[in-house]
Automatic annotation (TrEMBL):
Domain AB hydrolase-1 per the UniProt entry, residue ranges: 24-126
Protein name: Alpha/beta hydrolase
Presence of the UniProt keyword Hydrolase in the record: yes
One MF annotation (Gene Ontology) recorded for this entry: hydrolase activity
Organism in which the protein naturally occurs: Bacillus carboniphilus
Keyword rRNA-binding: no
Organism taxonomic ancestry: Bacteria, Bacillati, Bacillota, Bacilli, Bacillales
Keywords: Hydrolase
PANTHER family: HYDROLASE, PUTATIVE (AFU_ORTHOLOGUE AFUA_2G14860)-RELATED (PTHR43798:SF33), MONOACYLGLYCEROL LIPASE (PTHR43798)
Highest rank taxon of the organism: Bacteria
């Protein structure tokens, strides 16, 4: 594996290049996570694909600027990464926020995306019954503080359930963010995540699909949110897509790469092989 710190208009974007043969395949993580969430998934793809995982700005080992967290900016970071690595066309697999970024990228640069896999993201419009303040309420709560990295990881083991080897892989080299008072907290800053959430609130996700030319695989979780609402959204955007399919993996929740990794891998591989 090669690591790259790629400059995107003055912001460092951490990139992991796991292999360099086959069609390019980019993995994009969920909000508050990092490319490490894909560690249990990526090994199944490196023999056939040129696999790349990106830490979105404000996440993982990428820089954390005070501003610049709109979807269009995150998508442009992806473009810069691809341009720097000399990649013209790519397959994209996203989770949650990664789906929004991947779908935005595919709408701006439709000629550059071979296929798009949206795992529990970009599947509904933001709830119109909630005000922006209600939508952003979580991000106004003060950040949790821990005395040490060990205390933070213990907290994760007790609350990030069901705890298993897939989740444990994420924390192997996890580096908490140090606070001025000597304590530590989670890597991503809440004020940066709030800016992402605010942009999502102001965005009509369905409009992204109007300009997408590639094949799309929708993977709504069965037990996260309103499945029927997600299926209705997918049905509403399908007429604008040339080729799409939907798979609901039984028992899945938001982060299906942890609790249903084998099923997720099989569905994605089957989707790629159908071309």
């Amino acid at each position: 594996m090669k690591e790259h710190m790629i400059d995107s208009n003055g912001i460092g974007i951490q990139v992991y290049e796991y292999s360099q043969k086959g069609e390019p395949l980019v993995f994009l993580h969920y909000m508050g996570g990092s490319s490490a969430i894909w560690r249990g998934i990526i090994p199944s793809f490196i023999e056939k694909y040129h696999v790349i995982a990106i830490d979105l700005r404000g996440h993982g080992k990428s820089d954390q600027p005070e501003t610049g967290y709109q979807l269009v900016t995150l998508a442009e970071d992806v473009r810069t990464v691809l341009d720097t690595l000399g990649i013209k066309k790519v397959n994209i697999v996203g989770s949650s926020l990664g789906c929004y970024v991947g779908t935005k990228f595919a709408s701006i640069y439709p000629e550059r995306v071979l296929s798009l896999v949206n795992s529990e993201g970009a599947l509904v419009e933001i709830d119109p019954d909630k005000t922006k303040e209600e939508h952003l309420e979580y991000f106004s709560v003060p950040e949790q503080e821990f005395e040490s990295k060990q205390e933070l990881i213990q907290f994760m083991k007790e609350t990030w359930l069901p705890w298993n080897k897939e989740r444990e892989r994420v924390l192997v080299d996890y580096e908490p963010r140090k606070l001025e008072n000597g304590k530590v907290t989670f890597t991503s800053k809440k004020e940066n995540l709030r800016e992402i959430a605010e942009d999502l609130y102001d965005t009509r996700i369905s409009e992204f699909y109007n300009n997408i030319q590639c094949r799309v695989l929708f993977l709504p979780a069965e037990k996260e949110g309103d499945l029927n609402k997600k299926l209705q959204f997918i049905k509403s955007v399908e007429p604008n897509l040339k080729n799409s399919s939907t798979v609901v993996i039984p028992g899945t929740s938001h982060a299906m790469m942890f609790d249903h990794p084998k099923e997720l891998i099989d569905v994605i591989i089957n989707f790629f092989d159908e071309r």
